[in-house]
Amino acid sequence: MITFWAAALALTLMLYVLLDGFDLGVGMLFGIAPDETARRHMVQAIAPVWDGNETWLVLAATILFGAFPTVYALLLSAFYLPLLLMLAALILRGVAFEFRYKSRRLRRVWDAGFVGGSYCAAFVQGVTVGALVQELPVRDGLYAGGAFTWLTPFSLLCGLGLCLGYALLGAAWLCGKTESDVRDLGFRLLPRLLLGVLVFLGAAFAYALAMNLRVLHRWVERPEMLVLPLVGAAACAGLLYAVRRRNDALPFPLVALIFAAAFATLAASFLPYMVPFSVTVKEAAAPEASLSFMFWGAGVVVLPITLIYTLVVYRVFKGKVDVAEHYD
Amino acid sequence: MDISALMLSRIQFAFTVSFHIIFPAFTVGLAAWLAFLQARAMISREPVYDRLFDFWLKIFAIAFGLGVVSGIVMAFQFGTNWSELARRTGPIQGPLLGYESFTAFALEASFFGVLMFGRARVPRWFYLFACLMVCLGTSLSSFWILVNNSWMQYPTGFALRPDGVFVPTDWWAILFNGVVWVRFPHMVLAAYVTTSFCVAATGAWYMLRGSDRIEARAMIRMGLGLAAILVPLQLFFGHLTGDYVVKHQPSKIAAIEGHWESQAPAGEILFAWPDEAQEKNHFVVALPAPIGSLIDDGTLTGTVIGIKDIPKADRPPVLIPFFAFRIMVGCGLLMLALAWGGMAFYATGRLERARWLQWAIFLSFPLGFVATLTGWFTAEVGRQPWTVYGQLRTADAATPFLTSPQVATSLAVFGAVYALIFAAGTVYIYRMLRAGILPTPAHAGSTANPKRPLAVPGDSPGAPGGTPSGTPAE
User: Fold this and answer.
1) What are the b/e assignments for A1-25, b being 16+ CB within 10 Å?
2) Which of A38, A52, A46 is nearest to A22 (CA)?
3) What is the CA radius of gyration of chain B?
4) How far is CA B213 from CA A319, B210, B361, in A?
5) What are the start-end ranges of the E strands in chain A?
6) Euclidean distance between CA atoms B474 and B460, whole angstroms
7) Which residue is closest to B398 within chain A, CA to CA?
8) Nearest-angstrom CA–CA distance, B148 and B152
9) pLDDT tens, residue order, chain A (328 aa)
10) How far is Cα A31 from Cα A39, in angstroms, rounded to an integer?
């Protein structure tokens, strides 16, 4: 039961990162779109699905609440200010989808909120991952740090890194979803963003070595984990090939693979800890009665159905955005 | 946590949840209304239903968007500001809210995309299916929220572990108790009534200014007609809701009734100014005994508990539940009069000449929102000083290490962001309502289908001259 919910949480978070990752990425790239046509094109590429994508964040939060309440209480309160920033950013970015077409004078404001909100949400998510890797002070399962404990050079670096990563996802999505100038923009950006991500990973690794972070010891203990970065490296090579061949369909799955490899690497380095390295998955789990109540309904029935209709909705909107149909 | 951080956290929760509830109160009903219009349009093929559907879909889009973004905040606040509550009641509240996001949030969010952008891409039956799924999603969402909140009002089916954690022992009791199944219909009816009055008020507005005549009549007929049936039903469920408070929450009913001394038989206080310092009421207007006893427990001699019989440490603030309850009931009675009166005038063909009544219906649009909000104020403030009634005090539920500057910052940020998006959302909805229905182009089946809520002519900077919507604006 505990394993099921830990896996469900990992799957949900992973889907969130991949799905909202690309629409946050498109939101960032929206800032450098050359003209209004390109901007509409970009919004059109994500408008039908962004809401569903963001839902995976809520699903992850509630799985955490239901299955691992101590961790939910610990992490959310420890990251009070960054989460506030992220929520405000997600709000401003979410309303922009509707509001930018309704406004007379404020379109620039909503567009700025859209771009800024996308950057900010991505950055904060990266910062929290960075702070987790660096370890939070925890005593008796309760957070023992201050309001700004999460704020370190390493966490800021991770924030930057995730922005680059989401932008990479976004660019790959645009290659597959759009035509003409926006697609070209995507292809131009992909190699540069990939380079940025690799530089970030190198810097983060060097920093971790210098600080002698405990995460590194896990890698020495578990050399089989090195398969995962190798998968990521292979996906990078594949991506460069796809860009050279101007293949529309390949970039997104390949970038998704890079993300999956990175995500799995992190998860494997943390296990069996949920909050590294203080609370294990087992310690965090809710009582059996809670886990099985969720399992027999939400777990076996609703989660698969949710996955199915997410696929259905993506199928409905498959293919390129039609340039002619995106005007209001 | 220091006292001011606790108070600020309470204000923040009250503010964000009040802001949030406005939109579900509207969209739960609106989703059902849209599904109904879509079904009617498919069956009758009368264009008026299609036109109404297109029109209300645009408004739904904005309200739904605001509901979603303000709802995401709620999913986090239990952990950020109320971490002790989350830690201790997580095994119960977590799965309930988990079910909400699994069964409702994901469903409505995904099919909302189809509703807004998929009309030309899916067959008509699937489009109706998407409408129904959004409607189902919004209703399921209310269900789980009400199960969760009802457990906080009437905790049941749990055992308390030595470390203070609430462990569920009987989910059946948590899901299927009399409190849930009275409060859930009460909330859904509130949403439907709120939407009915918004629809009817829009119809009355157009009737007053003489535009969109067919749609105006249809909206008044459907809005008021539904309200004429639902408002009495709502008053009945409201009474049942009161019954559970009488049975399970003595401190709340004492604050609502506003008697300081226990009485048997008791009168019913219609109006007063309760004075908590002196423990007495000023300016009392009351109905004589035994009306209070009759209302509370249906007998001529029943005891109505007084506030003084509740230990001081366990008393809720009196003023807010006392007045919020009376405002809610007042709105309910006013809506009943309007719905029945309006329908009587409509049925006898006198409504079109009775401009005063059209004005009254037009101005009635906030009544449902006010009643919903004040109803929640009564329920939530009346539950104080408890977060989980009788089990966990609000002061013990908050995040222990949170400081006032942190909460003040978050409250200020939420205040500013919500003010901005609320103001903009209201203006955009107002503009669409003011623009009226007629400019909407042909739809359904035609290739000129709107893929997103249409920009109202002249609204888009790209279309300064007011291009008919649905055609390229640039």
Assistant:
1) eeebbbebbbbbbbbbbbbbbbbbb
2) A46
3) 24
4) 42, 7, 16
5) 138-139, 142-143, 273-275, 279-280
6) 10
7) A77
8) 7
9) 888 989 999 999 999 999 999 999 999 999 888 888 888 888 888 888 888 888 888 889 889 998 998 888 888 888 889 999 999 999 888 888 878 888 878 888 888 999 999 999 999 999 999 888 888 888 877 788 888 888 888 899 999 999 999 999 999 988 888 887 888 888 888 888 989 999 998 898 888 888 877 878 887 888 888 888 889 889 889 988 888 888 888 888 898 999 898 888 888 888 888 888 788 888 888 888 888 888 888 888 888 888 887 888 888 888 777 655 544 4
10) 9
Q: What is the dihedral of CA B249, B251, B256, B259, to 10 degrees?
A: 130
Structure tokens at B195: 């939407």
Task: Kindly report the pTM of this predicted structure.
Answer: 0.86
Instruction: Give the type of residue at B211.
Output: S
Whole-number Å distance between alpha carbons of B325 and B316: 14
Note the Cα B215 to chain centre separation in Å: 26
**The complex's ipTM?**
0.85
Structure tokens at B56: 């209300």
Burial of B112 (0-12, 13-18, 19+ CB in 10 A): buried
CA angle B252/B257/B263 to nearest 5° reads 105
Contact map slice: A 82-121 vs B, CB within 8 A: 83-84, 87-88, 90-92, 94-95, 97-99, 101-104, 106-107
The whole-number pLDDT of residue A321 equals 79
What is the distance between the alpha carbons of residues B464 and B469, in angstroms, rounded to a whole number?
A: 12
Give the C-alpha separation, B260 to A323, whole Å: 69
Asked if residues A117 and A70 have their Cβ atoms less than 8 Å apart, the reply is: no
Q: Which stretches of chain B score pLDDT less than 70?
A: 1, 438-474
**Residue A173 identity:** W
Structure confidence at residue A276 (pLDDT)? 81
What is the token pair recorded at B6? 């606790």
CA distance B307 to A113: 50
Peptide bond into A277 cis (omega under 30): yes
Shortest CB distance from A83 goes to which of B68, B80, B109?
B80
Q: Residue B109 and residue A51: Cβ atoms within 8 Å?
A: yes
B69 touches chain A (CB under 8 A): yes
Distance CA B115, CA A316 (A): 12
The answer to whether A59 faces chain B, any CB pair under 8 Å, is yes
DSSP three-state, residue B400 = coil
Looking at this protein, which amino acid is placed at residue B371? Answer: A
